[in-house]
Protein backbone atom coordinates (compact mmCIF):
# COMPACT_ATOMS: atom_id res chain seq x y z
CA UNK A 1 0.00 0.00 0.00
CA UNK A 2 1.28 3.49 -0.82
CA UNK A 3 3.07 5.19 2.04
CA UNK A 4 3.65 1.92 3.92
CA UNK A 5 6.83 -0.14 3.94
CA UNK A 6 7.75 -3.45 5.52
CA UNK A 7 10.93 -1.91 6.94
CA UNK A 8 11.46 1.84 6.98
CA UNK A 9 15.13 2.50 7.66
CA UNK A 10 14.61 6.25 8.02
CA UNK A 11 11.32 6.37 9.92
CA UNK A 12 10.92 9.66 11.75
CA UNK A 13 13.84 11.32 9.98
CA UNK A 14 13.77 14.62 8.13
CA UNK A 15 15.85 14.91 4.95
CA UNK A 16 16.76 17.83 2.71
CA UNK A 17 17.65 17.00 -0.89
CA UNK A 18 19.12 19.88 -2.88
CA UNK A 19 18.47 19.73 -6.59
CA UNK A 20 15.71 17.29 -5.71
CA UNK A 21 13.21 18.32 -8.37
CA UNK A 22 14.50 16.01 -11.10
CA UNK A 23 17.11 13.49 -12.19
CA UNK A 24 19.23 11.86 -9.50
CA UNK A 25 17.90 14.23 -6.85
CA UNK A 26 14.29 13.26 -7.50
CA UNK A 27 15.12 9.55 -7.37
CA UNK A 28 16.89 10.09 -4.05
CA UNK A 29 13.98 12.09 -2.64
CA UNK A 30 11.48 9.40 -3.61
CA UNK A 31 13.61 6.65 -2.08
CA UNK A 32 14.19 8.55 1.18
CA UNK A 33 10.45 9.15 1.44
CA UNK A 34 9.76 5.46 0.80
CA UNK A 35 12.12 4.63 3.66
CA UNK A 36 10.10 6.76 6.07
CA UNK A 37 11.77 10.19 5.91
CA UNK A 38 9.93 13.47 5.58
CA UNK A 39 11.59 15.07 2.57
CA UNK A 40 12.30 18.69 1.66
CA UNK A 41 12.82 19.31 -2.06
CA UNK A 42 15.20 22.30 -2.24
CA UNK A 43 15.62 23.32 -5.86
CA UNK A 44 16.06 26.52 -7.83
CA UNK A 45 13.31 25.20 -10.14
CA UNK A 46 10.46 25.98 -7.77
CA UNK A 47 7.65 24.73 -10.00
CA UNK A 48 9.35 21.39 -10.61
CA UNK A 49 10.15 21.10 -6.91
CA UNK A 50 6.47 21.57 -6.15
CA UNK A 51 5.54 18.87 -8.66
CA UNK A 52 7.99 16.42 -7.10
CA UNK A 53 6.75 17.17 -3.59
CA UNK A 54 3.17 16.70 -4.79
CA UNK A 55 4.11 13.35 -6.35
CA UNK A 56 5.61 12.21 -3.06
CA UNK A 57 2.52 13.45 -1.23
CA UNK A 58 0.21 11.48 -3.52
CA UNK A 59 2.10 8.35 -2.48
CA UNK A 60 1.20 9.13 1.11
CA UNK A 61 4.54 10.48 2.33
CA UNK A 62 5.28 13.94 3.84
CA UNK A 63 7.15 16.34 1.56
CA UNK A 64 7.80 20.05 1.28
CA UNK A 65 9.04 22.02 -1.74
CA UNK A 66 11.16 25.11 -1.07
CA UNK A 67 12.53 27.13 -4.02
CA UNK A 68 16.22 27.45 -3.17
CA UNK A 69 19.30 29.00 -4.73
CA UNK A 70 22.12 27.08 -3.06
CA UNK A 71 24.58 29.80 -4.09
CA UNK A 72 22.83 32.44 -1.96
CA UNK A 73 23.15 32.20 1.82
CA UNK A 74 19.82 33.99 2.54
CA UNK A 75 17.97 31.55 0.26
CA UNK A 76 19.61 28.53 1.91
CA UNK A 77 18.95 29.86 5.40
CA UNK A 78 15.29 30.50 4.53
CA UNK A 79 14.98 26.93 3.23
CA UNK A 80 16.42 25.52 6.45
CA UNK A 81 14.12 27.73 8.52
CA UNK A 82 11.13 26.48 6.51
CA UNK A 83 12.24 22.89 7.11
CA UNK A 84 12.47 23.41 10.86
CA UNK A 85 9.17 25.26 10.94
CA UNK A 86 7.40 22.39 9.14
CA UNK A 87 9.18 19.34 10.57
CA UNK A 88 11.04 20.52 13.68
CA UNK A 89 14.38 18.87 12.98
CA UNK A 90 16.95 18.04 10.28
CA UNK A 91 18.56 14.60 10.23
CA UNK A 92 19.84 14.26 6.67
CA UNK A 93 21.30 16.64 4.10
CA UNK A 94 21.93 15.36 0.58
CA UNK A 95 24.02 17.87 -1.36
CA UNK A 96 22.98 16.93 -4.88
CA UNK A 97 22.46 20.30 -6.61
CA UNK A 98 25.17 20.86 -9.21
CA UNK A 99 25.92 22.10 -12.69
CA UNK A 100 26.39 18.98 -14.82
CA UNK A 101 25.29 19.87 -18.33
CA UNK A 102 28.53 21.48 -19.46
CA UNK A 103 29.92 21.50 -22.99
CA UNK A 104 33.29 19.81 -23.26
CA UNK A 105 36.41 21.65 -24.38
CA UNK A 106 40.13 22.11 -23.69
CA UNK A 107 40.94 23.66 -20.34
CA UNK A 108 42.29 26.85 -21.94
CA UNK A 109 38.91 27.47 -23.59
CA UNK A 110 37.01 27.54 -20.28
CA UNK A 111 36.03 31.11 -19.52
CA UNK A 112 36.46 32.65 -16.10
CA UNK A 113 32.70 33.05 -15.96
CA UNK A 114 32.16 29.32 -16.60
CA UNK A 115 34.79 28.36 -14.03
CA UNK A 116 33.36 30.65 -11.36
CA UNK A 117 29.79 29.51 -11.99
CA UNK A 118 30.66 25.82 -11.64
CA UNK A 119 32.63 26.43 -8.45
CA UNK A 120 29.84 28.61 -7.07
CA UNK A 121 27.17 25.95 -7.47
CA UNK A 122 29.19 22.75 -7.01
CA UNK A 123 31.44 23.82 -4.13
CA UNK A 124 30.13 26.95 -2.44
CA UNK A 125 26.54 25.69 -2.60
CA UNK A 126 27.18 22.51 -0.58
CA UNK A 127 29.28 24.49 1.91
CA UNK A 128 26.46 27.00 2.46
CA UNK A 129 23.96 24.18 2.94
CA UNK A 130 26.19 22.42 5.48
CA UNK A 131 26.68 25.65 7.41
CA UNK A 132 22.95 26.26 7.49
CA UNK A 133 21.98 22.82 8.87
CA UNK A 134 24.79 22.60 11.42
CA UNK A 135 23.04 24.40 14.30
CA UNK A 136 20.10 21.98 14.16
CA UNK A 137 22.29 18.90 13.80
CA UNK A 138 24.61 20.00 16.58
CA UNK A 139 21.66 20.64 18.84
CA UNK A 140 20.46 17.09 18.13
CA UNK A 141 23.99 15.68 18.48
CA UNK A 142 23.36 13.74 15.28
CA UNK A 143 23.14 14.13 11.53
CA UNK A 144 24.07 12.56 8.21
CA UNK A 145 25.45 14.58 5.30
CA UNK A 146 25.85 12.93 1.89
CA UNK A 147 27.66 14.82 -0.87
CA UNK A 148 27.25 13.83 -4.52
CA UNK A 149 30.69 13.77 -6.14
CA UNK A 150 31.68 12.01 -9.39
CA UNK A 151 33.83 9.06 -10.42
CA UNK A 152 35.57 11.41 -12.84
CA UNK A 153 37.74 12.60 -9.95
CA UNK A 154 39.30 9.12 -9.96
CA UNK A 155 39.64 8.55 -13.71
CA UNK A 156 40.17 12.07 -14.99
CA UNK A 157 38.65 13.16 -18.27
CA UNK A 158 39.70 15.73 -20.84
CA UNK A 159 37.44 18.63 -21.60
CA UNK A 160 35.69 18.96 -18.23
CA UNK A 161 38.38 20.39 -16.00
CA UNK A 162 36.09 22.82 -14.16
CA UNK A 163 33.53 20.11 -13.37
CA UNK A 164 36.11 17.53 -12.27
CA UNK A 165 37.94 20.11 -10.14
CA UNK A 166 34.69 21.11 -8.44
CA UNK A 167 33.83 17.52 -7.57
CA UNK A 168 37.37 16.91 -6.32
CA UNK A 169 36.99 19.93 -4.06
CA UNK A 170 33.68 18.59 -2.74
CA UNK A 171 35.27 15.24 -1.92
CA UNK A 172 38.13 16.94 -0.09
CA UNK A 173 35.60 19.07 1.77
CA UNK A 174 33.81 15.87 2.81
CA UNK A 175 36.94 14.59 4.51
CA UNK A 176 37.66 17.82 6.37
CA UNK A 177 34.06 18.11 7.52
CA UNK A 178 34.09 14.50 8.72
CA UNK A 179 37.04 15.31 10.99
CA UNK A 180 35.51 18.56 12.17
CA UNK A 181 31.99 17.32 12.84
CA UNK A 182 32.59 13.79 14.12
CA UNK A 183 32.70 14.93 17.77
CA UNK A 184 29.23 16.47 17.26
CA UNK A 185 27.76 13.13 16.17
CA UNK A 186 27.54 14.23 12.52
CA UNK A 187 28.71 11.83 9.79
CA UNK A 188 29.80 13.18 6.39
CA UNK A 189 30.36 10.98 3.34
CA UNK A 190 30.49 11.26 -0.46
CA UNK A 191 29.03 9.20 -3.27
CA UNK A 192 30.69 9.16 -6.69
CA UNK A 193 28.30 8.06 -9.44
CA UNK A 194 29.39 7.31 -12.96
CA UNK A 195 27.70 8.74 -16.04
CA UNK A 196 24.01 8.41 -15.21
CA UNK A 197 21.09 8.50 -17.63
CA UNK A 198 19.57 11.86 -16.74
CA UNK A 199 18.59 14.69 -19.07
CA UNK A 200 21.45 16.84 -17.77
CA UNK A 201 24.13 14.17 -18.18
CA UNK A 202 22.94 13.11 -21.61
CA UNK A 203 23.95 16.48 -23.05
CA UNK A 204 27.14 14.61 -23.98
CA UNK A 205 25.13 12.30 -26.22
CA UNK A 206 24.38 8.62 -26.49
CA UNK A 207 27.90 7.91 -27.73
CA UNK A 208 29.39 9.07 -24.43
CA UNK A 209 26.94 6.85 -22.54
CA UNK A 210 27.85 3.84 -24.68
CA UNK A 211 31.57 4.45 -24.14
CA UNK A 212 30.95 4.52 -20.41
CA UNK A 213 29.02 1.24 -20.53
CA UNK A 214 31.93 -0.47 -22.29
CA UNK A 215 34.25 0.36 -19.39
CA UNK A 216 32.04 -1.24 -16.75
CA UNK A 217 32.30 -4.63 -15.10
CA UNK A 218 28.49 -4.56 -15.09
CA UNK A 219 27.95 -3.54 -18.73
CA UNK A 220 24.75 -1.54 -18.68
CA UNK A 221 23.53 2.04 -18.32
CA UNK A 222 23.55 3.58 -14.85
CA UNK A 223 20.18 4.91 -13.68
CA UNK A 224 19.36 7.37 -10.88
CA UNK A 225 17.80 4.48 -8.95
CA UNK A 226 21.20 2.73 -8.86
CA UNK A 227 22.41 5.50 -6.56
CA UNK A 228 19.54 5.67 -4.09
CA UNK A 229 20.37 2.57 -2.03
CA UNK A 230 23.79 3.93 -1.13
CA UNK A 231 22.24 7.23 -0.05
CA UNK A 232 19.79 5.39 2.21
CA UNK A 233 22.67 3.39 3.70
CA UNK A 234 24.76 6.48 4.41
CA UNK A 235 21.72 8.30 5.82
CA UNK A 236 20.68 5.46 8.11
CA UNK A 237 21.87 4.00 11.41
CA UNK A 238 23.56 1.20 9.43
CA UNK A 239 26.46 3.58 8.64
CA UNK A 240 26.82 5.07 12.11
CA UNK A 241 30.58 4.34 12.29
CA UNK A 242 31.37 5.43 8.73
CA UNK A 243 32.51 8.97 7.95
CA UNK A 244 34.82 10.79 5.56
CA UNK A 245 34.50 8.08 2.92
CA UNK A 246 33.93 8.05 -0.85
CA UNK A 247 31.61 5.33 -2.16
CA UNK A 248 31.92 4.82 -5.92
CA UNK A 249 28.78 3.69 -7.76
CA UNK A 250 29.58 3.13 -11.43
CA UNK A 251 29.18 -0.56 -12.21
CA UNK A 252 32.91 -1.19 -11.85
CA UNK A 253 34.06 1.35 -14.40
CA UNK A 254 36.65 2.78 -12.01
CA UNK A 255 37.68 0.29 -9.33
CA UNK A 256 38.47 2.26 -6.20
What this model shows, in words?
By secondary structure, this protein is α/β, with parallel strands linked by helices. It has a single domain, classed as NAD(P)-binding Rossmann-like Domain (Rossmann fold, 3-Layer(aba) Sandwich), CATH 3.40.50. The protein has helices at residues 23-34, 46-58, 73-87, 112-140, 152-155, 161-181, 205-214, 225-235; strands at 14-18, 38-43, 63-67, 92-95, 143-148, 186-193, 246-249. The radius of gyration is 17 Å and the shape is globular. The termini are far apart. Residues 1-5 have low confidence and may be disordered.
Task: Give Rg in angstroms.
Answer: 17 Å
What fraction of the residues are assigned to beta strands by DSSP? 5-15%
Q: CATH H level: which superfamily?
A: NAD(P)-binding Rossmann-like Domain
CATH topology: Rossmann fold
Instruction: Give the proportion of residues in helices.
Output: 40-55%
General shape: globular
